[in-house]
Amino acid sequence: MFMKEPENEQTEFTRKRYNTVSTIYDLMEWPVEQLWYKKWRQKLWQKVTGPKVLEIGVGTGKNIPYYPKNVELTGIDLSPGMLKRAKKLLPKLINDSVTFCEMDAQQMEFPDDTFDEVVATFVFCSVPDPILGLKEALRVTKPYGRLHLLEHMKPEQSFLASIMESLDAPIHFLSGVHIARQTVANVRKAGWDIDKVQDLTAKGIFKNIEATKPH
């Protein structure tokens, strides 16, 4: 039986899990990255214009090739192991406009209304308290600022949803990832105005979510 840990312990558990897998993370995700994720990332970043952009959950830097030019980008990640790998991928030409730092998405150190746009790709499946993380993203975004998400979540189809719910706890224990989150609902609960939800695969497991911070 998998017992729910206190939030601070969950955060440390997640940090350790991602530190542990940081050296093999790209290999683990290579098949889905080539099949789906790369094209989804590229399309998402084409919509980002800044000028001040926050990326939550930089990971090993898979979004770096798609960063738009002429934006001031700040990237955060909970895991120093993942960030170390991401920093090695930063081209020297964009080092001056990109800053990476270790930070918890649930407790960001930025002032209110700092960023024009916030981006996260496959991140809120592993944030221990996703609504808290999304509220923090809202806090640091300027009024009418935009949120861009790629996420996997619990599907709408009931039979498959029940299977994923039963597997959620053991998969989280092994990897730090939740596979049965209801991220669209979480975005709304955090206070964002949802503008668009696009199903990227059958059954609605993968979605592109776009939202705006109310004035």
Structural write-up:
This protein is an alpha/beta fold and 215 residues long. The protein has a single domain (7-212), classed as Vaccinia Virus protein VP39 (Rossmann fold, 3-Layer(aba) Sandwich). It is 38% helix and 23% strand. Strand 4 (115-121), helix 4 and strand 5 (141-152) form a beta-alpha-beta unit. Helix 4 packs across helix 6. The termini are far apart.
Tally the helices: what do you get?
6
Supply the CATH superfamily name: Vaccinia Virus protein VP39
- The first-to-last residue Cα distance is 44 Å
Strand residue percentage = 15-25%
Q: What is the name of the CATH class? A: Alpha Beta
What spatial order of strands do you see in the largest sheet?
3-2-1-4-5-7-6
Radius of gyration: 16 Å
Could you describe the largest sheet, including whether it forms a barrel? 7 strands, mixed
Spell out the key features of this protein.
single chain, 215 residues, alpha/beta
